[in-house]
Amino acid sequence: MKKTTIHDIAAELGVTFSTVARALNDHPAISAATKAAVLETARRLNYQQNKLASSLRSGRSNVIGIIVPSLDTSFFSSVVHGMERVLNENGYSVLLYQTGESQVQEQKGVNTFLQSRVDGVLASVSAEKDQTEFYASLRKRQVPLLFFDRAIQELAIPSVTINDFQGGFAATEHLIQQGYQNIVHIMSDLHLTIFKERLRGYVEALKQHGLPVREELIFKGRVSLELGQQTVQQLLETQTPFDAIFAAEDYTAMGALQTLQERGVPVPEKVGIIGFANEAFGAFVTPSLSTVDQQTVKMGEETARLFLQLSGQKNFYQETPERIVLDPILVPRKSSTRGVNQ
Amino acid sequence: MKKTTIHDIAAELGVTFSTVARALNDHPAISAATKAAVLETARRLNYQQNKLASSLRSGRSNVIGIIVPSLDTSFFSSVVHGMERVLNENGYSVLLYQTGESQVQEQKGVNTFLQSRVDGVLASVSAEKDQTEFYASLRKRQVPLLFFDRAIQELAIPSVTINDFQGGFAATEHLIQQGYQNIVHIMSDLHLTIFKERLRGYVEALKQHGLPVREELIFKGRVSLELGQQTVQQLLETQTPFDAIFAAEDYTAMGALQTLQERGVPVPEKVGIIGFANEAFGAFVTPSLSTVDQQTVKMGEETARLFLQLSGQKNFYQETPERIVLDPILVPRKSSTRGVNQ
Predict the structure, then answer these.
(1) Candidates 3.90.650.10, 3.40.640.10, 1.20.1260.10, 1.10.260.40; CATH matching B6-49
(2) What's the burial of B181, exposed, middle or buried (CB within 10 Å: 0-12/13-18/19+)?
(3) Can you give the residue ranges of the HTH lacI-type domain (chains A, B) (predicted)?
(4) Which of A50, A162, A322, A328 has its CA 20 to 30 A from that of B60?
């Protein structure tokens, strides 16, 4: 029996080849009614999308692998949605791998994607030191790799990141402008440039406003609700004077907010709080949580577009890798706003 | 040059083959120090885990594909973490595919996993009607498939779900016991048994407590923050009498809570609210959001364990597929608690 092709479906429906191809790839320009008709006809004619065969012919799988620390946070899930939208529109399927910040898992993820013969890997790294040869090896094999949000700067790999220095600076300056002076910073102990840059922004804002940088107000740990809670408990038990907290991540800021409320310390009147990442819950809580938005969907879309652009070139890897840096956006809410008179 | 094997690494370090194999698979029983030493030695000896070759020999890839509607909700990301923990411990890598509730994407996900030659697929479906042949075809090809949370009951496929009827009943009965009588229900318009069962629980609780079931208090749509907001706006504009809302999903409950607060309707005093799914934000908001917990991590672990158990049998597919049903847990918080005297 002759195998059904996209041309057969197009002829049956009286539409173009391109319409059928795009309908089968769920392209947004094709109406739901057309997609339903195409799928119905494809099924009736027993059409089989033989991806494996076409992938062996073209050497392409049309699958992109994305490596993320975790999809628990709206930060990463929102970035991934931006990527999926652009990649799906361009005929790619997207597979995800969570590392849980483990480099062993990260290496397994890269190997699993190689084994699945993906056409490219988009990765946000777990740590920038220690073992990173598995990323360098992708370049050696000419498998397209892009970093997003967390990049290994030493490797000549294209990347899309945000200006974390500017984000840390804006968050700290906002607290200073609201009249807070003894500002705690809670950051990650992972080897990641993003957290070092946010710290650098915090230090620079204090300096520019003539405030001292006090080492005893800088706390490091695995950023989480618990880290924020523990830090505030420690600050209160040691009676360390402080009137604001800039946490490098929203869940940590939320933990700090919870413990201050439990101990009867009014936020923002006595202590101001700002987080980082604009997690979805921040707008729901009372007081609403100030934060720094990282343009997540845009980061995802830009990463996907840069992949598509570089994949269209003769050599994916250029001598000087393209590095797109997005601007963060300060999102002041109630947890750090004392009003104009203070 | 002779290829480095696991035996070479074991000999070099003076440990057993099993220790090296488990260290390379990130097994939790192996210490971080040992893992680091194994990785260091593996790198130094230029060891290459040739997964593709071994997969071609054994016919196994040791990769499991998971299909979910979206990882934006803590419900699905938490279930997936439960699965990953059990599967990683047993030497499997896990790849994820998000469908965004689109059946076209869902079919692409199944095809992508087949193309990647996964050893099994764990899926939570986008809809139970229309096109589901792609799931039936996995069974025909003897590719192991399990459903979790959302299953297609017509297909003889093993599954792990929760008792949604009982969850809907418990949520509604809790509101009645708190003295609420005119209870709105907001549910999904997707073709999914989980929502139909929650509705059935709502109806049965009203009946058992002698309350009328009023069609005008049952609202359907794409569950989301916006659906909750719109439903409350509509209820207030049409001056429909109501004193409680049971939303079949937490974001929808949150949207309802926000709009009631904006309009100055006190929660829980005037209107009680309960959601479903125990999303992470529910404990943070004011008033804290009552909900129904679905034992997410346990659901993930049970699904992974059932996969491992069935994979160890001669035939993965039994005549009568195993169907594990977990009990939901009522989580009453402030949004629905008026105190014992009311």
Answers:
(1) 1.10.260.40
(2) middle
(3) 4-58
(4) A50
